[in-house]
Amino acid sequence: EKFGLLAGQHVVITAGPTREAIDPVRYISNHSTGKMGYAIAAACYAAGADVTLISGPVSLPTPNGVKRINVQSAQEMLKHSLDLVDACDVFIATAAVADYRVAQVAEHKIKKAGDELNVALIKNPDIVATIAQQAKRPFMVGFAAETQNVEEYAKGKLKTKRLDMIACNDVSRSDIGFASDENAMTLFFAEQYAMQKQELVKASKLEIGKQLVEAIAAALAK
Ligand code: C5P
Predict the structure, then answer these.
(1) Cα 89 vs. chain centroid, distance in angstroms?
(2) Which of 102, 95, 99 is nearest to 17 (CA)?
């Protein structure tokens, strides 16, 4: 039997980038390293939770005790998220999901020809928003990286994606976020929670992960 703030809870965490194929040898992706999601996974496990990471391609070791499902595309990440939703109590979306994917993935390597190549893109599904619409809805945590109007945009996403909590950081600061080992963030909660806003001051991603676990446990207790 496990002890801790999240004992008995099954936490599912999406992390890292997604990779959207163009042809058999090329893809569209982003610079997400997965560090924040992996740190949160470790913190949740340390707090007694059963933890599943649904991870895009990253070069990080799987945290001790954490189950990891490797995926490439946003559609694959959504499929595995939907498969786990019924058994999930807390869903934490840290993944940097590609907003668009290639409309028609080429079956064979695209050969170079003219000076221009056009690739049509179509919108990917919003994973966290889709999970939040399921009948058995877990406690939903999203992330927002903003460079301006941080509070306004974060609160907007909290509502439109139907989240319980959103963790938001100012990515215009070079000392935190992205590939950094440190982070600082502001948490906003949905209206039904007593706490509306909470600051997590600059600390290691592991420490931020711990504080996030405490905030989630406090909200779940309501
Ligand atoms: O809308 P935006 O991409 O800024 O929202 C970020 C939040 O939504 C993150 O929690 C991210 O993991 C999640 N997200 C998602 N699926 C997408 C886009 C974003 O789950 N297609």
Answers:
(1) 15
(2) 95
Structure-model confidence comparison of residues 3 and 50, the more confident one: 50
| Residues with C-beta less than 6 Å from any ligand 1 atom | 14, 74, 93-95, 97, 124, 126-128, 142-144, 157
Query: Does residue 212 contact residue 186 with C-beta atoms inside 8 Å?
Result: no
Residue 216 confidence (pLDDT) above 70: yes
Amino acid identity, residue 204?
S
Q: Which residue has the tokens 């019924």?
A: 86
Q: Is residue 4 part of a domain?
A: no
Q: Which domain holds residue 177?
A: 10-220
Rounded (5°) CA angle 117-122-127:
140
**pLDDT tens per residue across span 30-85:** 999 999 999 999 999 999 999 999 999 999 999 999 999 999 999 999 999 999 99
Q: Structurally, how many domains does the chain consist of? A: 1
In a domain, 3, yes or no: no
Answer whether residue 1 is part of any domain: no
149 is a catalytic site residue: no
* Angle, vertex CA 54, rays to CA 87 and CA 35, nearest 5: 130
Report CA(109)–ligand 1 centroid distance (Å).
30
Q: Stretch 181-198: mean pLDDT, rounded?
A: 91
| CATH classification at residue 42 | 3.40.50.10300
> Tens digits of per-residue pLDDT, 131-154?
999 999 999 999 998 888 989 999
Q: Does any domain span residue 2? A: no
